[in-house]
Amino acid sequence: MNRRDFLLGAGALSLTVMGRGAVAGTDASRKVLILVELKGGNDGLNTVIPYADANYHALRSGIGVARERTLQLDERVGLHQKLEPLMESWKARDFAILQGVGYPLPNRSHFRSIEIWDTASSSNQTLSEGWIARAFEKASLPGVGKGGAGVDAIVTDTNSLPVTGPDLRTIVMQDAENFLRQAAAMKDGRTGDDGNPALRHLLAVRHEVNGAAQGLRDKLHDGPAPATQYPQEFGFGRQLDLATRILMAGVPVVAIKVALGGFDTHANQVATHERLLGVLAQNLAVLRKNLIAANLWNNVVVMTYSEFGRRAKQNASGGTDHGTAAPQFIMGGTVKGGLHGVYPSLTDLQDGDLKHTVDFRNVYSTLAHGCWGVSREFGQRDRQTLGFLA
Amino acid sequence: MTARLGRRGFLRDFGGGAAVLGAATWLPRTALASSAMGFEEARHLLSRTALGATPLDIVATQRLDYAAAVDGLLARFRPQAATPAPDWVNTGPSFVRQQAKAQTDKAGVEAKPVQVVQKLVQEQGRDLRNWWVEEMIATDQPLVERMTMFWHNHFTSSIQKVRFVPSMYWQNVLFRREALGNFARLLHAVARDPAMLVYLDGVRSVAKQPNENFGRELLELFTLGEGHYTEADIKNAARAFTGWSIDRDTGHFQNHLQLHDDGEKTFLGESGRFNGDDIVNILLRQPRTAELIVEKLWREFVSFTPDPQEVKRLAAIFRTGGYEMKPVLRALLLSPAFRDPANRAVLIKSPVELIVGSVRVLGLPVPEKTQLIRMMGALGQIPFNPPNVKGWPGGESWITTNTLLLRQQFLRRLIEATTVSPMEGSMMAAGGAQNRRIERREQLPVEGRSLRNSASEVRLGPTLENVDADTLRRALLPRLPIDGVDAGDAPGAVVAAAMLDPAYQLK
Questions:
Q1: Interval B411-421: pLDDT, tens
Q2: With CB atoms 3.0 to 4.6 Å apart as the test, which of A120, A158, A324, B20 could cross-link to A378 if both were Cys?
Q3: If you write DSSP's letter for every residue of A114-164 in order, what string do you get?
Q4: What is the ipTM of this complex?
């Protein structure tokens, strides 16, 4: 063995070690992130309720959740009663609640704030690529961005920004069967666009459809169905049904995105918000059940997020206006259950809004490492790895 | 530009030179002929201002002088719809309550008032969409429909939230009235528009606790745009609009003075005991307001990327002209950027444009609009139901992997349908699980003459018959076909190939 061979051998060895260790590169250790967008700005204060805090009941005299209608998690906070279906996960300790997540200089515009969340930008910076696409920038992981099933991320609602970028192949589809049938009828081919951005986009989408259809056709054909039906045939339940089928078919995606809308509760919010929390909890509980049954619960991480929480004090219409920090739910077989972080103070408000205690970009960095083994920061000032993943 | 100087470039240069000549009166015959804009430019002008221009429309326009054609488009303005309104548009909220009570009394304890109202909202919503789509298909002034949609997408309101459907009809009447009217008048009217007052919670905004929803969107989306105001401006604007509400029985605008915050406010650097109209007037004095509207008009009519210099020039015309729509639209359509051949085929048709335009260009009789509207929904644009207050983002976002497939599916169905018999309800359906059953049925071969299969024998509708293959292709596509499949010269096959070409998605 000469020196050159020795070096080559050492190189190969260190690669192997890295592949199995800190920088996970194999499919087996990679996890699929399921993004659950709560559109409109979920009222965090009525989701994870600081029931023991007298200030809460003062700020929310009309719409506050009574102590006896909260599922107490510790001596300070509890979940809204409608989230009861998630208690099994809580007791199994695979349900983490991140308290007070937000960002500095919060923006209260729906559109701008969700853009900040989706691109992991700072408040005064505009980025066009999604944070997951950015996580894979130049990461060259096996199968991602090329080969495999021809698709890296699947979006079942209409906002695909978190997974939009040149390094990910993203498919937006509401119905797999229809997707495959229609794709079969559309040709691929010529890609010259004469410098016309609209045409370039059109042809790129067409190319993406063809590539994904090729990869998905075999996998989804006669694929297994989820063990338990989702409570909703349409909307959120249908999206999770599709997500489950994709996971069970073993399509090697890095992320799946679903969304539940209607959280912009400016007026008479109690009934609307309760209904939405119920839909969220029931469907997520079924997702967990299905993925455990399929032996996939350790291979996924579920994350809820919303563009912002809502104003601490209720408004005169029995609703709440746009606010700032809010809790996030993280679930999965490898998640460290429990309450994480610090609940924002209800007395130390900024312009009537909660001050965030966790920067959402630290949540993302933690997930990028824990799910895909990539080390990425997103410009946050105090980069930290949070402890919600085992 | 030199690289692009193909046939189009030549025609353009020739036309420019000829216009100068045309000003001279000593050559009347040449002047008339040479000031004609030509087929390509006529097609471009109509693809941006009409809905599904037919070859005949384009041929008629190409003979005109360009500026004269633009003036002609703007001159044609009837500020009311020709289609008769649904019969419930003059009912007030008290009527809804009576209906709910009558139904509940009749049905006993079975029917809940909530469900009765829900059903009424659904039925009226369907009537209202049918009414507008009918008008869009039948209209002789498509630019007015486009501008009505433009205002609907700017000053969004949604039936889903508003619930009181007659107010959504009257909001459309307002947008139609100001389609080619006056933006300042429109902005004042929108601030007291009943549907808007419900949609952005103005009805709930009172001195004691102002609701910021309308104030915020007024600044962020309707006038200045993000970054041109502070949170304090929003709070003060919200205070100024307190008390603007609607009458519980009629649903008309009502100013509750006792609920108005009459105190001193500071807004965009000015101070006073402002009311809502004062706020609107201050906003209309900001150059940003005109710029924001012009940027949006640019993205609607010219290209994805507004030219900042040109935006400033057009915004000045807009503002100094007292926000009249016709002068700014005229200047926009006559601008070098609009006429630049490089800006042809660079916009993506919206679902409504694609669907209404295809139906119009094929001359398809569509007695039942519900299926068309369902397809609009599947492609992401149901009239009166914008996704949120920012409206439909449009542009490239119209085309996703999902919607591109559905667009092709819709066009294939149109092509498979015979072009001379009315479209049946079952012929089209949206994607999604709820329509799976309908779609299965539609997998069956469609009876009738497919444009593709019947080729030369097919009788095209009156809009397309007796037009040669080359003219058909050039009329339907805003640029050369992408797939370049030689469909032969059979008119049916040419139309089918053109409509399924990706270039057909562009305008």
A1: 987 877 644 33
A2: A120
A3: HHHHHHT--TT----S-HHHHHTTTT--TTTTSSTTS-SEEESSS--GGG-
A4: 0.84
B454: confidence class by pLDDT, cuts 50, 70, 90: very low
Phi-psi sector, B52: left (phi>0), alpha (psi -120 to 50), beta: left
**Strand residue runs (E) in B163-309:** 244-246, 253-255, 265-267, 270-272
* Beta-strand pair A95-102/A70-72: unpaired
Residue among A198, A206, A321 whose CB faces B212 most closely:
A321
Per the structure block, which two tokens stand in for A72?
Answer: 């107490």
Answer whether A69's CB lies under 8 Å from A79's CB: no
Do residue A172 and residue B402 have CB atoms under 8 angstroms apart? yes
A373 Cβ partners below 8 Å, 6+ apart?
A22, A23, A24, A25, A29, A30, A141
Distance CA(B507)–CA(B502), nearest Å, equals 11
Q: Which two tokens stand for residue B404?
A: 């591109």
Q: What is the pLDDT of residues A288-308, one digit of tens each?
A: 999 999 999 999 999 999 999
Q: A190 touching B, CB under 8 A?
A: yes
Could you tell me how many residues make up chain A?
390
Q: Nearest C-alpha of chain A: how many angstroms from B503?
A: 8
- pLDDT tens by residue, B485-505: 666 778 888 888 899 899 999
Per the DSSP assignment, residues forming a β-bridge with A71 are: A79
Find the range with the poorest average confidence among A165-174, A241-250, B60-69, B421-430.
Answer: B421-430
Residue B43 near residue B58 (C-beta atoms within 8 A)? yes
Partner-chain contact B505 A202, CB within 8 Å: yes
Neighbours of A7 (CB within 10 A): 10
Long-range contacts of B224-228 (CB under 8 A, 24+ apart): B224/B283, B224/B286, B224/B288, B224/B289, B224/B292, B225/B288, B225/B292, B226/A109, B226/A112, B228/B286, B228/B288
